[in-house]
Design a protein that fits this description.
Pnp Oxidase, Chain A, single chain, about 210 residues, seven-stranded antiparallel beta sheet, globular, about 30% helix, 2 domains, 8 helices, alpha+beta
Length: about 210
């Protein structure tokens, strides 16, 4: 059902926003330019977007800076560390190899966007190469790059994401345990979960 204020065509979008500037077009390339490789090497965090039979998914990935390895100008290697074993991203990649990455660098406003095609590998040499604290990843996501470009800093500036958090700031959002307790109508012991979580995370980081 069409509503009077809905934007439903590309032509409507272009009329609303106008044409992109020259810089916005020039910054996109089909390979990992050395400047983009430098951003990836400095990034300790990325969001991985995938698509599968159940729909879209995006999940966080993080490690020391450079944890996503530039194999060559068309290939990235991302270790898959231990987690909650939902493996939503991996299930999607098996069904549909299209992926997108968003790299963040603390203190830097620009982010880096990478689109490509992924496959999952357990090649022994790659597992050993991407080991951390003596522990190998469970698998490696190999990404064949299609397009790469940096995103301007406005979103980071607007959100004030990298501004220091006051030392006396109080948590204003529910804890993981509180959320689980609420979702299960108190059938889940959220207080115990929160109490044990820090130690469990430290013990299972890698």
């Amino acid at each position: 059902m069409t509503t009077p204020h809905a934007i439903e065509t590309v032509a409507q979008l272009e009329a609303l926003f106008g044409q992109p500037g020259e810089a916005s077009l020039k910054k996109e390339v089909p390979y990992l330019h050395p400047s983009y490789q430098a951003l990836i090497a400095a990034s300790p965090f990325a969001s991985l977007a995938t698509i599968g039979p159940g729909g879209l998914d995006v999940s966080p990935r993080g490690d020391p800076p450079g944890f996503v390895v530039v194999q060559d100008e068309k290939t990235l290697l991302m270790p898959e560390r231990r987690g909650n074993n939902r493996i939503d991203s991996l299930r999607n990649i098996v069904a549909d190899p299209r992926v997108a990455l968003l790299f963040l660098i603390p203190g830097v406003g620009e982010t880096l966007r990478v689109n490509g095609m992924a496959r999952i590998t357990v090649e022994p040499s790659l597992l050993a190469r991407l080991a951390m604290d003596g522990k190998q990843p469970q698998c490696v996501i190999e990404i064949r790059v299609d397009t790469v470009f940096f995103q301007c800093a406005r979103a980071i500036q607007r959100s004030k994401l990298w501004q220091p958090v006051p030392a006396d700031a109080k948590r204003t959002v529910p804890t993981p345990g509180a959320i689980l307790s609420a979702l299960t109508e108190a059938a889940f012991d959220g207080e115990t979960y929160d109490k044990e979580l820090p130690a469990r995370q430290r013990a299972t980081l890698y």
